[in-house]
Amino acid sequence: MRECSFGVCQHSLELTQGRWYFAVTAVNHEGLESGYSEEVWADLYSDPRLLYPSAAGITWARGCVYEIRWAGFESSSVSLELVGPSGSFTLSSSTPNDGLFQVRIRKKHPIGGGFLVRVEGRQMPQEWDESQETFTILEPQVTTPQEGAVLSRGELVPIRWIPLSFCGDSVSVDLHKGSRRLRSIGSQVPNTGELLWNVPRELRPGSGYKVVIRSETHGACKAASPGGFVIE
Which spans in 144-192 are helix H? Predict the structure, then answer.
């Protein structure tokens, strides 16, 4: 308790986390309580923060694994949600509050822009945080050769893909015919979005060829060229 005078009361308190209330009691000249103020409640918690993903310019890709990181939560466990323009998607209804959760972006997860991650204390719902900036989720995409393209044996042709839709610094590039893998076109290829390919002369002319690109770090992050192309 702290005595005050002339309507002013100043006092410093060191309080632990939790719920506290404050009230002022008036005392007359005889030292008897003569009035009370209404109680003022205060919830004191730490500074919960989502560390990643939070900054601007982040892109995730389907098939890849990402680490969600947070700090400053007091609950023993937290829940994680992916929040997007069309609603929210539960990443984990309960995970230990150890500051780290790995999530693989699967086909069931939506794609597009405007996503946030929200982390909330399970035992203390008042403590929560979410991404400060929105991020994008992409489907791995190979753009060329396009469906119906005709490639000549011995010709130097570009293979192109969207780099941000593949995680990691390098990709593998394979030639398929239908569902069958024929050969490697390149491994540990820098994930720059383009590779020049000299179409082998020994390939058999025909249709139904595809290029399949796969992340070197996460094999589930892969895509095939749209439709099939022809080699003549």
Answer: none
| Nearest CA-CA partner of 173 in 181, 65, 59, 165 | 181
Burial class (CB in 10 A: 0-12, 13-18, 19+), 167: buried
Sequence-distant (6+) residues with CB within 8 A of 97 are 73, 74, 75, 76, 77, 78, 121
Ordered by where they begin, the domains of the chain are 49-138 (2.70.50.70), 142-231 (2.60.40)
Tokens of 76: 């023993």
The token duo for 70 is: 């947070």
CA distance 51 to 69: 5
Question: How confident is the prediction along the chain (232 residues), in pLDDT tens digits per residue?
Answer: 555 655 556 666 665 555 565 666 666 666 676 665 556 655 555 689 999 999 999 999 999 999 999 999 999 999 999 999 999 999 999 999 999 999 999 999 999 999 999 999 999 989 999 999 999 999 999 999 999 999 999 999 999 999 999 999 999 999 999 889 999 999 999 999 999 999 999 999 999 999 999 999 999 999 999 989 999 9
Among candidate residues 159, 109, 161, 158, the one with its CA nearest the CA of residue 140: 161
CA-to-CA distance for 176 and 214, rounded, in angstroms?
A: 13
